């Protein structure tokens, strides 16, 4: 994790600036040739913006207790999986607009494609257009679950 943070900091700073780890999880960035508070504040926003990444795995059609819902109903399962995805994003102070990638795993690709309008209904109004991948799989971990969402988000 510390290596990843260091690499991200390095990718955010200008040539001639310095990023260093002080110890533990503390880093410092030294900015050269700053013309005023506006320059340093813009650089600080860039660095802060690059450090929040959320990896969301396994959002399915389950209730709060983890029990699968809507057996054999792909549309209802996709809708509930999207609700659960949004709940995770909300808990991280993010929205669907923060999605940078969305992977959909389905036990029936054709059935999933028939209900992709739900993705448009949810992602469109949020201004979200993440790259998406639809993968067919023989089965998912929980019996009766037909669809699973995996997502990355950044803020």
Task: Provide tags for this entry.
155 residues; alpha+beta; two-stranded antiparallel sheet; elongated
Give a written overview of the molecule:
The chain is an alpha+beta fold and 155 residues long. 37% of the residues lie in helices and 26% in strands. The protein has helices at 2-12, 37-49, 74-91, 109-114, 117-126, and strands at residues 18-23, 26-30, 53-60, 99-106, 132-136, 147-154. A four-stranded mixed β-sheet has the order 3-6-4-5. Strands 1-2 form a two-stranded antiparallel sheet. The longest helix is centred in the middle third of the chain and has 18 residues, at 74-91. It is elongated. The two termini are 17 Å apart. The mean pLDDT is 85.
Task: Chart the SSEs and their pairings.
Layout: H1 2-12, E1 18-23, E2 26-30, H2 37-49, E3 53-60, H3 74-91, E4 99-106, H4 109-114, H5 117-126, E5 132-136, E6 147-154
Parallel strand pairs: 4-5
Antiparallel strand pairs: 1-2, 3-6, 4-6
Evaluate the radius of gyration. 20 Å
Largest sheet: 4 strands, mixed
Which geometry do the CA atoms define?
A: elongated
Q: Which assembly state applies to the chains in this document?
A: single chain
Number of helices: 5
Category from helices, strands and their pairing: alpha+beta
* Integer average pLDDT: 85
Q: Count of DSSP E strands?
A: 6
| Order of adjacent strands in the largest pleated sheet | 3-6-4-5
The string of secondary-structure elements, in order, is: HEEHEHEHHEE
Low-confidence stretches: none
Helix content: 25-40%
Give the CA-CA distance, first to last residue.
17 Å
Proportion of residues in extended strands: 25-35%
